[in-house]
Amino acid sequence: MRTLVYLCIGILFGITMFKSEAASWFRIYEMFKFESFHMYGIIGAALFIGSILVQSIKRFKIKSFYGEKINFAPKAKGFKRYLFGGIIFGLGWALAGACPGPMFTLVGAGYISIFIVIIAALLGTFLYGLFKDRLPH
Amino acid sequence: MNWIYEPWPWYIAGPMIAFIMFLLIMVDKNFGMSSNLRTMCTICGAGNKADFFKFDWKAQKWNLVVVSGTIIGGFIGSYFLSTNLAVAIHPETISDLKALGFESAGTAYLPTELFGTEALRSLKSVLVLTIGGLFVGFGARYAGGCTSGHAISGLSNLQLPSLIAVIGFFIGGLTMIHFIFPLLF
Predict the structure, then answer these.
(1) Which residue from B76, B105, B112, B157 could staple onto B116, CB 3.0 to 4.6 Å apart?
(2) Hey, are the CB atoms on A88 and B139 less than 8 Å from each other?
(3) B124: Cβ contacts below 8 Å, ≥ 6 apart
(4) Cα distance between residue B105 and residue B95, in whole Å
(5) pLDDT at residue A102 greater than cutoff 70
(6) Chain A residues close to B138, C-beta within 8 Å
(7) Residues near B55 by Cβ (< 8 Å), separated by ≥ 6?
(8) Distance between CA atoms of A62 and B161, rounded to whole angstroms?
């Protein structure tokens, strides 16, 4: 039953990514060119409503659907890893035009070449795991 | 109901993403896509090479189910909910892209020059996709999250590390588009 819930949430996410064109390489390019409000509107609206929801859950101590207390794990403190990791991610995001959610959306949409991006992203993740201890965090 | 076949505007898509994050929180989970890449590495046996991949991946099975849904969602969105796949980007963006050699700008969902089956025969497009993917995977793990984990979940929870990461995303993205693209294309 819970698996079905996760699957439906994923389907909703996939449809949203595809239909909003957030999974389109062109929209990512256009965003970094500041030539359209579209992507900023999506991220901004998600953030505006998302923060109201998260802050409400915290303030009113809302329980989950299964009656559990909701914990928000704070991100580990740090600066370098977020800045350097973020910059590397941004370079890749602009080049491949896909981030880790939309990558999978594009598989479903039938774009075979996206497998190259996914396999490379897996390799990138693996390389991080290998060199993690030698990187500034 | 015809609007559903049109591209969804930001004021539908943005709230929808917030709603998806909310649903995941309400079922005791969290919204973050890139951690699936780590889980997939672990399943492929990366734990034998690096301790970073030694963890109980079964605890992350739920997120792999979400990703499977994302694939199905892409299929439904593309084959059942769309009549025209061309992305109507800004006319100025189209002329910029045409000047760079992307003739498919304004007529397709993804640039055929990079993603089309013809492009698979070009070493350059394969390299662009490979390096792009490599950086996305490496950077997401280094920063501890991607667009969903930092830009949406982290910032919604007012996390300073997520703000630093998102600033990094934009430094990287702007550098790529404004300084590296003119050298590449």
Answers:
(1) B112
(2) yes
(3) none
(4) 8
(5) yes
(6) 88-89, 92, 124-125, 127-128
(7) B42, B47
(8) 25
The answer to whether residue B42 neighbours chain A at the CB level (below 8 Å) is: no
Report the residue of chain B nearest A134, measured CA to CA.
B142
Q: ipTM surpassing 0.90, yes or no? A: yes
**B13 near A CB under 8 A:** yes
Q: Tens-digit pLDDT profile for chain B (185 aa)? A: 677 899 999 999 999 999 999 999 999 999 999 999 999 999 999 999 999 999 999 999 999 999 999 999 999 999 999 999 999 999 999 999 999 999 999 999 999 999 999 898 999 999 999 999 999 999 999 999 999 999 999 999 999 999 999 999 999 999 999 999 999 99
Facing residue for A47 by CB, picked from B36, B115, B155: B155
B26 part of contact set with chain A, CB < 8 Å:
yes
Tell me the β-bridge partners of A69: A63
This prediction has a pTM of 0.96
Which of A17, A26, A54 is the best residue to mutate to test the B interface, defined by the most B CB atoms within 10 Å of its own CB?
A26
Task: Please answer whether residues B182 and B162 qualify as being in contact, where contact means their C-beta atoms are separated by less than 8 angstroms.
Answer: no
Tokens of residue A22, six digits: 């957030």
The domain spans of chain B are: 1-83, 122-185
Q: Which helix (H) or strand (E) holds B24?
A: helix B10-26
> Which residue of A1, A15, A132 to mutate against B (max B Cβ within 10 Å)?
A15
Two structure tokens written together for A76 = 């580990």
DSSP state of B5: G
